[in-house]
Amino acid sequence: MKLVECPRDAMQGLAHFVPTALKIEYLNTLLQVGFDTLDFGSFVSPKAIPQMRDTADVLAGLNVAATKTRLLAIVANVRGAEQAVTYEPIRYVGFPLSVSETFQQRNTNKAIAQAFTDVAAIQELCQRKRKELVVYLSMGFGNPYGDTYSPELVRDFTAQLVQMGVGIISPSDTIGTSTPEAIETLFRHLISEFPTIEFGAHLHARPGEAPDKVRAALRAGVQRIDGALRGFGGCPMAADELTGNLPTEEIIQTLTASGISLVINKEALQKAMTLSAGVF
């Protein structure tokens, strides 16, 4: 099981700016926990996401030599990807592709058709620079805008990405609308139809909902799950009221109770939990 910790997602919507030195301290602690991947920052417009304007400076302060955790950076266009791939420590480049036309415009200021063009260019760039592209299918479980949605639409988007050679795809419950039944149904169908693809679950949840959502993803065969300590976060472009990420500590508890063995540095995890109070 691959655990992806997402402090970038947790921090991006905060009203206060988290000082660069504190970000570095927090992220370096997370790098010692034992996560597969750390979604640490983003190369996007500082006007759109001011919290992430120091991503390059933060990266320079990370102790990547002392960890097996791989770094992921989010981008919203080709220019951001061109920045991200220049940094050797970054293994993954993440791009939010929405199945909702309204949200694609809100999130990246472009239409879905243009976003697919960007994905193709970013995928080619990643292949040349030996990075891996992770495409997040935002609004993958419904949206509040009245746009057309169906599991078949998510499947069609996935098929187009597979044709481009994208190997990691994460349907995303951007505003917490998914149910365990919907999670299990969607992932079962996707994993069955596209067995060579690594599917991730990037889910948001209200308090108390996370364990059932994690168990649903497990039943479907998902082997990659995103979370954030204490369930902080949510997409500031999606709604006025943020719905938090799955709390990482609850993911760990649920996986362990389900018999899945995880190699976690409990001391580092506890330190990160303590530090998070000062960050958020």
CATH hierarchy: architecture? Alpha-Beta Barrel
3D shape: globular
Unreliable sequence segments: 236-242
- Averaged pLDDT: 94
- From the N-terminal CA to the C-terminal CA, the straight-line distance is 27 Å
CATH topology: TIM Barrel
- Helix amount, in percent? 40-55%
Quick structural gist:
42% of the residues lie in helices and 17% in strands.
Walk me through this protein's architecture.
This protein is α/β, with parallel strands linked by helices. The chain has a single domain (about 1-280), classed as Aldolase class I (TIM Barrel). Helices cover about 40% and strands about 15% of the residues. It is built from eleven helices and nine strands. Strands 1, 2, 3, 4, 5, 6, 7, 8 and 9 form a nine-stranded parallel beta sheet that branches. Helix 8 (about 180-195) packs parallel to helix 9 (about 210-220) and helix 9 (about 210-220) crosses helix 10. The model is unreliable at about 235-240 (pLDDT under 50). GO terms for molecular function: hydroxymethylglutaryl-CoA lyase activity; metal ion binding. This is Hydroxymethylglutaryl-CoA lyase. InterPro entries: Aldolase_TIM, HMGL, PYR_CT. Keywords: Lyase, Metal-binding. Belongs to the HMG-CoA lyase family.
Write the layout of secondary structure elements.
Elements lengths: L1 E4 L1 H5 L8 H11 L6 E7 L11 H6 L9 E6 L2 H7 L5 E9 L2 H8 L3 H18 L2 E7 L12 H14 L3 E6 L6 H14 L4 E2 L2 E2 L6 H11 L3 E4 L20 H10 L8 H14 L1
Summary tags:
TIM Barrel, 9 strands, 280 residues, alpha/beta, 11 helices
